[in-house]
From TrEMBL:
Protein species of origin: Dactylosporangium darangshiense
One family name in Pfam for this protein: Phage_holin_4_2
Protein origin, superkingdom: Bacteria
Disordered, as annotated region: 127-159
Low complexity composition-biased segments: 149-159
Residues passing through the membrane, by range: 32-51, 58-78, 98-120
Record flagged with keyword Ion transport: no
Name of the protein in its database record: Phage holin family protein
Keywords from the named record: Membrane, Transmembrane, Transmembrane helix
Compositionally biased tracts (Basic and acidic residues): 127-136
Length: 159
């Protein structure tokens, strides 16, 4: 269920990006637009899941050198790649140019998705909270008096 919520949030942010960012378009009637946006959100998620770790590993030096700013370029390139895949699949989603459409679109999608996911609780978050609430408090510490000699005696008595 959590993955469907994440997909819906991603699809909503892609749709918002088509409204806000010039150069990102989705054509067709409402039904085709909804299907295209959901498919593009799924494609964008898969592209990010597969390629981003590879790019980060290979381009680790670029991330360090630019203090992470190269991630804007990488995200834009992944959005442009998603657009090309969508065109190959005959979806009506298009990103016109790398700058500013793809970079600003990827930045917008990332920030808005992060905000929406922050407010939509994940089932794992609920389970962790319930588990935390059910935990028993730790037992009280036993105090031994008398210093080292007494501790040795208590140890011998315990054995």
């Amino acid at each position: 269920m959590g993955i469907l919520i994440r997909l819906a949030v991603s699809a909503f942010t892609v749709w918002l990006a088509t409204l806000v960012i010039p150069g990102i378009t989705v054509d067709g009637d409402t039904g085709h637009q909804v299907l295209a946006v959901v498919a593009v959100a799924a494609i964008f998620g898969i592209v990010n899941a597969v390629l981003r770790p590879i790019i980060k590993t290979i381009g680790c030096w670029a991330y360090i050198l630019t203090l992470g700013l190269v991630s804007l370029v990488v995200n834009g390139a992944l959005l442009l790649l998603t657009s090309k895949i969508a065109e190959a699949l005959d979806l009506s989603f298009r990103v016109e140019h790398f700058w500013p459409s793809a970079i600003l679109g990827a930045l917008f999608i990332g920030v808005v998705s992060w905000l929406l996911n922050f407010f939509v609780p994940d089932r794992g978050d609920k389970n962790r909270k319930q588990e935390y609430d059910r935990r028993q408090p730790p037992p009280p510490r036993q105090q031994y008096g008398g210093g080292y000699q007494q501790q040795q005696q208590n140890y011998r008595d315990y054995r």
